[in-house]
């Protein structure tokens, strides 16, 4: 079964489009390296920046290894606590990717479900769901996330890192589902009038089964493209919240937290503490966005 699937994939138009796109290949390679280093940071990272017992305060604020006062064991330098910047980037990227992917998964589940119901049911149900979407779209996503995250931290001031992680996902997902709902709703309005849906209705297929087995597979193309791009958006929102001090705590730093901590030392000459996390954030967001742009063109039959 796996051999048949792989054979079909490597013969597909998507694979041929990928091979013919240098930007897609480079961005995929960069994204894979970042994901690999983040997932396997416990084994790949030179040091464990989360282990306070292993930190050397005497090595604090060391510049990158290629500068005069740098040390070879700290390739990108250290921060004020003596943490290796390169290792901190790997661990911080892991947290940022987890928040981004988890929030997108939650948004996809909610948005696709509501979009299917709105497009298939129509009438008052469609109008109600779309009005809720309009209300959510009237508020800037970052302000809604900031409000939810701030309220969550006010209710649970001594929250554990895992609870802060959950609150952050909820804050980002609260407005993220709207785009999926509107996209799926529009595609469902088109699909529900096609012959295969009408035939399924005639033979008595229940509405939930019809939406799940017949309509859903045919509306997942735009959702896949949107989800790919929204991962980068979610990572940037998480970094913004962490930079403002309402995201991940310093004990479990994400890329946004590392940028916020390093910003205090930027004017004093320790530029590497904030520049390298910022560059990593840009690199991840850019590679994911380029992959999303390529996937959108590859799945568009008009561009083949």
From TrEMBL:
Signal peptide: none annotated. Pfam families: BPD_transp_1 (PF00528), OppC_N (PF12911). The chain crosses the membrane at residues 24-45, 95-123, 135-156, 162-180, 219-251, 271-295. SUPFAM superfamilies: MetI-like. It is found in: Cell membrane. Residues 93-292 form the ABC transmembrane type-1 domain. It comes from the Bacteria. PROSITE patterns: ABC_TM1 (PS50928). The keyword Transport applies. InterPro entries: BP-dependent_transpt_permease (IPR050366), MetI-like (IPR000515), MetI-like_sf (IPR035906), OppC_N (IPR025966). It is a multi-pass membrane protein. CDD domains: TM_PBP2. Keywords: Cell membrane, Membrane, Transmembrane, Transmembrane helix, Transport. Belongs to the binding-protein-dependent transport system permease family. This is ABC transporter permease.
């Amino acid at each position: 079964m796996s051999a048949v699937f792989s054979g079909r994939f490597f013969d597909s138009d998507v694979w041929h489009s990928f091979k013919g796109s240098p930007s897609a290949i480079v961005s995929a390679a960069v994204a894979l390296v970042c994901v690999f280093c983040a997932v396997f940071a416990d084994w790949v990272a030179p040091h464990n920046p989360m282990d306070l017992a292993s930190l050397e305060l005497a090595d604090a604020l060391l510049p990158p290894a290629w500068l005069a006062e740098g040390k070879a064991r700290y390739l990108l330098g250290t921060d004020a606590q003596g943490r290796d910047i390169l290792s901190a980037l790997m661990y911080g990227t892991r947290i940022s990717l987890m928040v981004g992917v988890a929030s997108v998964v939650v948004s996809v589940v909610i948005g696709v479900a509501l979009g299917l119901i709105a497009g298939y049911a129509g009438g008052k149900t469609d109008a109600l769901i779309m009005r809720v979407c309009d209300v959510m779209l009237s508020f800037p996503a970052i302000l809604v996330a900031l409000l939810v995250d701030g309220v969550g931290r006010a209710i649970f001031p001594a929250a554990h890192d895992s609870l802060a992680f959950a609150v952050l996902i909820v804050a980002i997902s609260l407005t993220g589902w709207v785009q999926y709902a509107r996209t799926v709703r529009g595609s469902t309005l088109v699909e529900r009038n096609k012959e295969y849906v009408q035939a399924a209705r005639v033979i008595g297929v229940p509405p939930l089964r019809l939406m799940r087995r017949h309509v859903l597979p045919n509306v997942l193309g735009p959702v896949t493209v949107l989800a790919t791009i929204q991962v980068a958006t979610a990572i940037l929102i998480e970094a913004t919240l962490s930079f403002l001090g309402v995201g991940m705590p310093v004990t479990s730093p994400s890329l946004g937290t590392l940028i916020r901590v390093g910003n205090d030392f930027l004017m004093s000459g320790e530029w590497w503490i904030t520049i390298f996390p910022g560059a990593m954030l840009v690199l991840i967001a850019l590679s994911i966005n380029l992959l999303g742009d390529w996937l959108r063109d590859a799945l568009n039959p008009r561009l083949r």
